Amino acid sequence: MFEEKTPLGCPGCKNTMQLARVGVTMMHECATCGSTWLDAETFRGLCLNREERGAVVALIGQGAAQKPGEVAGQTPRYVPCPLCTKIMNRVNFGRRSGIVIDICRSDGVWFERGELRRVLAFIDSGGLEHARAADQEQQAEAQRARAFLDSPLMSDAPRPSPMDEGDGESFAGWLVREALSKLFS
């Protein structure tokens, strides 16, 4: 957790981020660009606490003035962590949300204007559960495909690499074609 008296430089606009408390959530906000910094522990807690998410959504980013012509997320940029100064990783939150956030694995998460609000709305709409279910279905599909390839039916079929798509046929297309040829030959 960050030291409450330590001012943080905004990774985006380099101005000073002010410490703010919303309910039990401590965060740094930039009044200039509307970005928000949460330490990793605070962000995890916020993701798990529905009431706290509601309080934060109601109050974040209220004071930041948008610059004329500014579009949030318009140009991807890699920014340093305000604590350790290492370049943060850009990650699609929940791997399926479409909301790209900046993460320092050891220190926390930086959200550009509107991103924290969108992440919390994604969580509240069940987005994480849907993403988890889709990932599980994709893994199950891959297991079924591996089991089919290992079955006696496919034992003598040639095995292309999933990367061999030079002839225009995808691995999935090859798999379907081979399965059909075995079933109907």
Percentage of residues assigned to helices: 25-40%
Biggest β-sheet strands, sense, barrel: 7 strands, antiparallel
- Care to count the β-strands? 7
Q: Can you list the strand order of the major beta sheet?
A: 1-2-3-4-7-6-5
Silhouette: elongated
What is the element string, with H for helices and E for strands?
EEEEHHEEEHHH
Mean pLDDT: 78
- What's the tally of helices? 5
Number of domains: 2
List the helices and strands and how they pair.
Blueprint: E1 8-9, E2 16-22, E3 25-29, E4 36-39, H1 40-48, H2 50-59, E5 89-92, E6 100-104, E7 108-111, H3 115-124, H4 127-149, H5 171-183
Antiparallel strand pairs: 1-2, 2-3, 3-4, 4-7, 5-6, 6-7
Helix pairs in contact: 2-3
Explain the overall architecture.
The protein is α+β, with helices and mostly antiparallel strands and 185 residues long. It has helices at 40-48, 50-59, 115-124, 127-149, 171-183, and strands at residues 8-9, 16-22, 25-29, 36-39, 89-92, 100-104, 108-111. The chain has 2 domains: 8-128, no CATH class; 151-185, no CATH class. Helices cover 35% and strands 17% of the residues. The N and C termini lie far apart (65 Å). Residues 63-71 have low confidence and may be disordered.
Short descriptors:
185 residues; 5 helices; 35% helix; seven-stranded antiparallel β-sheet; elongated
